[in-house]
């Protein structure tokens, strides 16, 4: 049911974006807060939801199979997750202060190119399927082993209850803060390009709302959701976001003279201007190669992960 609702919402959003692109011949200005607002909020919401799903998976692994006598240890995990959420907000303001200070010392175009490149790297990590197969398995296994060690210590005589509680607080903190830190890095590029925080607020709230629904179903309603399918669905949506961001980022690096600009006349005749405005597809070798490379990295990591998973031990 939850997957069906998510699919309907995604298809509705895509239909609205297609209608907008056809009715207005594409977005006249992708940086315009009036027209680009829904697309930008959607990008941010999908990323926050994706990171929220991964955080919920780790927290579910930590709190799973706790006996009734261990239920009171779920509270320190929740306290740690709450502290990580507050730490993420503090990290956001620290990053804003740092980047605003850099803005006064270097040109806005160079800073946008640098932060945009950082956002691309974060998104590539999020979209790397092989990385998730290897790293996330180890990450969840590490938290599960730490939980088992703490529970075994709780059953031993003379164990300190305070140290056990702090151990569970630390597990909850690390489960959420890593995802929050990635989101903070990603959003700095959007903040610079949009020149405001309203679109960021709407996108983050949308992602948190969807993540909150999944969290309630998981931890309170004890529903087993199709997490894998949901991750794949959000991964496909983020794939489109990645290609648009890579094309836009490559063009910004050209404007900042970090990359040369090699225009292909034949492609310029085939690619209409609105494709550049709406999908960041430009008739230059550098932008097209960058987008093709990003697509190859994501699809290559997906097949590498499938091969590693199916390979006999």
> What is the assembly state of the chains in this entry?
single chain
- Assess the beta-strand content as a share of residues: under 5%
Number of helices: 11
Strand runs, count: 0
Structural class: mainly alpha
Please tell me the total number of domains: 1
Largest sheet: none
Mean pLDDT: 77
The low-pLDDT segments are: 19-35
The N- and C-terminal alpha carbons lie at a distance of 36 Å
What is the CA-atom radius of gyration, in angstroms? 22 Å
Helix content: over 70%
The succession of helices and strands, N to C, reads HHHHHHHHHHH
Shape: elongated
Give the key terms.
80% helix, 313 residues, 11 helices, elongated, mainly alpha
């Amino acid at each position: 049911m939850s997957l069906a609702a998510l699919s309907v919402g995604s298809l509705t959003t895509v239909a609205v974006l297609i209608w907008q692109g056809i009715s207005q011949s594409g977005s006249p200005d992708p940086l315009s807060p009036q027209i680009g607002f829904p697309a930008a909020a959607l990008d941010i919401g999908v990323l926050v939801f994706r990171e929220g799903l991964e955080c919920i998976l780790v927290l579910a692994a930590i709190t799973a199979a706790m006996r009734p006598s261990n239920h009171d240890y779920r509270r320190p995990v929740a306290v740690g997750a709450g502290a990580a959420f507050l730490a993420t907000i503090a990290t956001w303001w620290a990053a804003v202060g740092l980047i605003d200070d850099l803005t006064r010392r270097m040109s806005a175009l160079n800073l946008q190119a640098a932060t945009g490149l950082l956002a691309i790297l974060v998104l590539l990590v999020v979209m790397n399927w092989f990385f998730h197969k290897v790293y996330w398995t180890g990450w969840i296994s590490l938290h599960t082993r730490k939980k088992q060690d703490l529970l075994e210590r709780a059953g031993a005589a003379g164990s300190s209850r305070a140290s056990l509680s702090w151990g569970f607080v630390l597990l909850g903190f690390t489960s959420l803060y890593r995802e929050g830190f990635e989101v903070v890095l990603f959003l700095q590029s959007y903040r610079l390009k949009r020149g405001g925080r309203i679109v960021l607020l709407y996108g983050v709230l949308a992602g948190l709302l969807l993540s909150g629904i999944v969290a309630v179903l998981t931890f309170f309603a004890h529903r087993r959701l199709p997490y894998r399918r949901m991750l794949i669905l959000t991964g496909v949506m983020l794939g489109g976001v990645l290609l648009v961001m890579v094309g836009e980022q490559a063009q910004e690096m050209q404007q900042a003279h970090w990359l040369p600009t090699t225009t292909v006349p034949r492609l310029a005749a085939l690619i209409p201007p609105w494709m550049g405005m709406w999908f960041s597809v430009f008739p230059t070798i550098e932008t097209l190669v960058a987008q093709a490379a990003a697509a190859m990295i994501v699809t290559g990591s997906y097949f590498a992960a499938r091969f590693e998973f199916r390979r006999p031990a």
